[in-house]
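User: Hey, my collaborator sent me this sequence without any context and asked if I could get a structure. I don't really work with proteins. Can you help?
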Amino acid sequence: MKDSTLEQEIILLKGLARNDKRSVEMIYGQNYNLVQALVINNNGTIDDAKDIFQEAMMVLYDKARSGSFELNCQIRTYLYSVARRLWLKKLNQSNRHTTDFDDTNETQIAVDGEVVEHEQKDAEFEMMHAAISTLGEPCKSLLEAFYFKNNSMQEIAENFGYTNAENAKTQKYKCLMRLKKYSFLNIKKPD
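Assistant: No problem. I've predicted the 3D structure and written it out in structure-token form, which is a compact way to encode the shape of the chain:
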């Protein structure tokens, strides 16, 4: 994990430990869809996903409050693995009590596939972050504000001194084109 990403994650964890509403909302907003997809794609419902995510958040909350928790991965990776474990446990319990058919292996395969997909997305995310880091200012900061900090165009316009959100959007587009050009120039072609 990059230092700036680690710092942001630690800030979010400290906010969670203090019950900071903004930190909780950011963690929820950045991670709920991943857990929902996990549960729904593995014989669950939206209500199951909400329950599992809430349980995973409580585990993270308890760890953050303990003071001795040391985060060695992204929050999303931690929440995903906790949710996955909780969901598999719930599936195993319900299978044991409701039916003789044991689809644990099928469930395991589907979940393992999602773990691989999640790890690929994390790798792509890190590559994108590394590419953005090579851009000069203000592109680097602007893209980080939009994609990593989830700032709105209006917030970006105010923070970067653009006259309005439309101008900020135009600048973001130009920065993306620079990033795209840079990425194409630096992609290694297979032999």
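In plain terms: The chain has two domains: 3-115, 135-191. You can pass these tokens on to your collaborator as they are.
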